[in-house]
Amino acid sequence: MSPRAFSSEVDPGSRKENASRQRARAPFRSNRNGKGSNRSPRVSGHALLLIAAAPVLLFLLLPSLIIVPMALSKSQMIQFPPEWISLHSFSDYLGDRQWVDSTLLSFQVTITAVLIGAVTGGGAAIALHGRSFAGKGVLVGLIMMPIVIPVVVLALGDYLLFAQLRLLGGWVPIAIAHGVLATPYVFISAQTSLTSELNPALVRSARSLGARPCSVLYHVYWPAIRPGVLAGSMLGFAVSFDEVVLALFLQGASAVTLPVRTFSAIQYELTPKIAASASLFLALALVALALQALAARKTGRLS
Amino acid sequence: MRGLWKSYGQGTHQGAYVVRDVSFALRRGEFLTLLGPSGSGKTTSLMMVAGFETPTRGEILVDGHDIASQPPEKRNFGVVFQGYALFPHKTVLENVEFGLRMKGVPSVTRRRQALDMLDKVGLADFTARKPRELSGGQQQRVALARALVFEPDALLLDEPLSALDRKLRESLQSEIKEIQKRFGISILFVTHDQDEAMMMSDRIAVMAEGRIVQIGSPSDVYLHPATPFVAGFLGETNLVPGTYRGTEHGHAVVAFKDAALGCARLPADGRKLTAGDAVLVSVRPERVRLLTDKAEPNFVGHVTDCTFLGRHTRYRVQALGQAFAVSVTEWSPAAALSLGTPVRLNWAAEDAQILSEPDDALAPPLEIIR
Fold it and tell me: B5-228, superfamily in CATH?
């Protein structure tokens, strides 16, 4: 088989099996009228790639996809394959006070965390942009640490800190801890965005026209950093919503996030409610992805 | 009321003096260019005027007030940077309005003023476009409109045309010049391109190593350079060493190699010479005459090279112990001189200039008043 066949048309990283199949089909279509002889090496190369990629993609998708049929099962126990299709698990889930509270709490925590992360990460990116000084590397390292440090270490530290400050028990410590976790993602994203989008002469331009620091921030920095902050925030949202360890350590009687509740339910109460909530959030993630793709296409930029 | 403003600056940049004792005055409506090679301190000087660099010593005076301590946003200058630095996410109209907006002008008024200005520069139909949709020339006009709309005291331009190709550069040069004449604005321009400086300026300040070496009109600086650097930087020149013999009819008499005598203008800085002083005389190639008859004085030599360059023909003539570059504009195959032809050279006293050696001590810049 010719190595030439591994063209850039097929995207091996795509999670959507259909999408990659579709893109791979394009050369098939366009080659119908062409000379078959010199196109065939490429054709069979594509087929080979599909054969290799399909099982991998299936393996990656299966854990997510299996949830949905389980949520639609009629029985009171989670089982696969499900017996009857029914939506009762969804109504159970939405009717359970505790589960709904947890869902709302999770949103509350995550949105706050994203805001904290956006302001902190974005602010850091702007402040450090274009400046070099002794110790800058250390500072950047510090900002990036939440990604590198094992979450358990962070969780333990946060627990001890908030216990000392007598702040444990509410959703606020979780939001703060998640904000710290989200900051490096926004920072990297914002920094990249700033470096590529911001022309240093623009700041001087604005100043020469009479712009004070606030105006410079709003008119020059914000448009340049906006895509990076948004992209980083979405990543931060995903990280925070999903997060179990910190939320577990810092939980309180009224501060149980959705992942934590799911986690304990798995151990003690194996109902399809779990599958229902998981399905809903799979749908949410798909919608978010679709929106992001639409937005990226609109601005003409690949995020 | 805009009047004379003077600037005296000595700047330091990371320990080493990048700008030393630079003083010049920009008169109202004047086009003054800071010309020099990279590292000469010209951009730093401009940045000090704009407010992005702080002078270590010195003052920047506008109408008698020292503005050296004011941040750039408080100063009343319009700045055009290399690449124009138009706000990419704003439309042309919003770009031009920006300065007025920062001043707090209400939106109706500033819209009207901005549209007015855009109309004057011929971009009335482009108000809703984004900068990336414009050509280079259009972008420049937007940049100028943006800088002019709030009626600044002066325009500062930092090598705006350096990155462009020749044809575009020349047409944009005339546009800038035209806009300057139309609005009567004072312009401080920075460039390393001597043709550009000569074409656009009312006065040129030649800078090297952080100092202004000479200030004068383009013809002054070209025809009567003060130092070997200036002579060499603006166009080509012949530097001929000789000995000062005395003054005759207001011009210096200089003895060159083999006791041949020639004339030259006295040094531009008014320095007094005594007989026997070693001097360097600068003569531009186009001012050296190839003699057909025996006029005095004359120097004997022979042709070593001949190159046809379209606009002129360049000969290399070996005379007075060195290679002279001689530039001749008439060309005909019959009159072309072949290699080895013996020729006689001379020049008018007015066309030769005795140069001064640059001093390391802080000497005041040479300003030639005409």
Answer: P-loop containing nucleotide triphosphate hydrolases (3.40.50.300)
Q: What is the pLDDT of residues A134-144, one digit of tens each?
A: 888 899 999 99
Contacts of A210 in chain B (CB under 8 A): 73-74, 99, 102-103, 150
ipTM: 0.74
One-character DSSP codes across B189-216: EEES-HHHHHHH-SEEEEEETTEEEEEE
- Torsion sign over Cα A215, A216, A219, A224: negative
Q: Is B102 on the interface with A (CB under 8 A)?
A: yes
Q: Which amino acid is at B1?
A: M
Contact flag A208-B73 (C-beta cutoff 8 Å): yes
pLDDT tens readout for residues B270-321: 677 778 788 888 888 888 887 766 666 678 888 888 888 888 888 888 888 8
pTM: 0.72
> What's phi and psi for B185, nearest 5 deg?
-90, 150
Phi, psi of A49 (to 5 degrees): -60, -40
Residue B343, pLDDT > 70, answer yes
CA-CA-CA-CA torsion sign (A68, A72, A77, A83)? negative
Range(s) of chain B covered by CATH 2.40.50.140: 231-358
For residue B103, list chain A residues with Cβ-Cβ distance below 8 A: 210
- Cross-chain residue pair B78–A212, CB shorter than 8 Å: no
Picking from A132, A196, A204, A208 by the largest number of B CB atoms within 10 A of its own CB, the best residue to mutate is A208
**Per CATH, domain B231-358 is 1.20.272.10:** no
A17, pLDDT greater than 70: no
Ranges in chain B annotated CATH 3.40.50.300: 5-228
Q: Check CB contact of B229 with chain A, cutoff 8 Å.
A: no
Neighbours of A5 (CB within 10 A): 18
How many Cβ pairs closer than 8 A exist between chain A and B? 65
**Angstrom distances, CA of residue B357 to CA of B39, B214, B281, B354, B361:** 20, 12, 11, 10, 12
